[in-house]
Write a structure and sequence with these properties.
By secondary structure, the protein is mainly alpha-helical. Helices cover 33% and strands 4% of the residues. The strands form three sheets. It has a two-stranded antiparallel sheet. Strands 3-4 form a two-stranded antiparallel ribbon.
Length: 389
């Protein structure tokens, strides 16, 4: 009889004890509600896996399908200030949803000072042929990129140098919380976070941030290709689109005599991602002073402006460009850049002479109007990408 009762006890523990600890949804939800105030519901996670995208969007650098559980963990990590050594900075501190996941500060401030370059916007990071990240492409993948700011002394301070704790100390800190073991178990089937899991979760959340509800997308869905006039565009916006797409006709001195501006050569529609072969765009300085010709990466041009028409964030790796007109004007005359910038993109210096586009006010205003059509709406307010805390 005692043996029989022991078997019953073991079976009961197996069914309710271990399983309950791994997937006790009701008690786990109560823990999460303490921190997330109902923003994370274990029985009804936000949808990251089946977001729709237009059929003309073909570039995708995700290594596999997204997971609601993993992206949810990534959302929490993205907004959690515990990822900085003094609990003051999160990923979202420099990548704000209200600014297309960029930053208006130039440069951004970390726990031990200022960042070296302007924080890059993250919208549609997934929809690009380029898989390298940071302005100088030093990260070989988005996964590799996600933990580098955490390990940076100036940014989040788990560098293991200059008196900083190291990344192992961060793992101890996160695994000691009430909520990460629950979220990690749902995402990976284990209660413990490590660097690979953090990289996977953060990159999945970032890749989930997409924007395809712009005026451009409404028009593109009505035509066969980008070269056709969009029926929902104004004449000015269609002119700007054509100038953006068409190559310039240049004389032997690289002076434009007709044609467009050639923006499409590096910022390729319909994703408006950066061509992986692109080199420096002619902004050759650095925030700290002195030359910096190593910057060849750029975010998608989508959501470069806010819904109100204002620029989302300062542009370029130095944040030196403060308006769309200034950005367009920068490419108007690159004679000096061709002489001083050893890494200038060849497309900007045909005949080995910096291009001179001879832009007039009508053309600048038209391209500006077109760039504003690339701005979606939902990305700025969608709960899936908002602060869960």
């Amino acid at each position: 009889m005692r043996y029989f009762l022991l078997l019953i006890s073991i079976a009961t523990f197996t069914l309710t004890g271990c399983a309950g600890k791994a997937d006790n949804t009701e008690s786990n939800q109560a823990v999460l509600d303490k921190y997330f105030k109902g923003n994370i519901n274990l029985t009804s996670l936000d949808n990251y896996t089946s977001q729709t995208k237009p059929n003309y969007i073909t570039k995708d650098n995700a290594p596999g399908a997204l997971s609601n559980e993993i992206a949810t963990l990534g959302r929490v990590l993205f907004y959690d200030k515990a990822l900085s050594k003094d609990n003051s900075i999160s990923c979202a501190s420099c990548h704000k949803q209200s600014f297309a996941f960029g930053d208006t500060a130039t440069p951004s401030r970390g726990v031990n000072g200022l960042t070296g370059r302007q924080s890059m916007r993250l919208v549609n990071a997934r929809f690009s042929q380029e898989v390298k990240f940071f302005w100088d492409e030093r990260a070989t993948s988005l996964e590799n990129q996600t933990t580098q700011p955490i390990k940076d002394h100036a940014e989040m301070g788990f560098s293991g140098s200059n008196g900083d704790p190291n990344f192992a100390d961060l793992l101890i800190k996160l695994n000691a919380t009430e909520y990460y073991p629950i979220l990690a178990n749902r995402a990976f089937g284990t209660n413990t976070l490590d660097e690979t899991k953090i990289q996977n979760a953060l990159s999945q959340f970032i890749r989930s941030i997409q924007s395809f509800d712009s005026k451009y997308d409404i028009g593109r869905a009505q035509v066969n290709n980008d070269n056709q006039n969009f029926p929902n565009f104004t004449a000015q916006e269609n002119l700007g689109k054509n100038l953006f797409l068409d190559r310039p006709v240049l004389d032997a001195n690289s002076v434009r005599t007709s044609g467009g501006l050639g923006c499409q050569g590096c910022h390729r529609a319909p994703e408006f991602d950066i061509d992986p072969a692109t080199r420096s765009n002619g902004i050759g300085g650095s925030i700290a002073g002195g030359p910096d010709f190593t910057n060849t990466r750029a975010p998608s041009l989508r959501n470069i402006a806010l819904p109100n028409g204002n620029i989302a964030t300062p542009l370029m790796h130095t944040g030196v460009i403060k308006s769309l007109q200034a950005a367009i004007g920068h490419y108007g005359n690159l004679t000096a850049a061709a002489q001083n910038n050893t890494n200038l993109d060849p497309r900007l210096k045909p005949n080995n002479i910096g291009q001179q586009l001879n832009l007039n006010a009508t053309e600048v205003q038209a391209v500006e109007a077109f760039l504003k059509t690339l701005t979606g709406q939902a990305v700025y307010t969608d709960k899936r990408w908002s602060n869960p805390f």
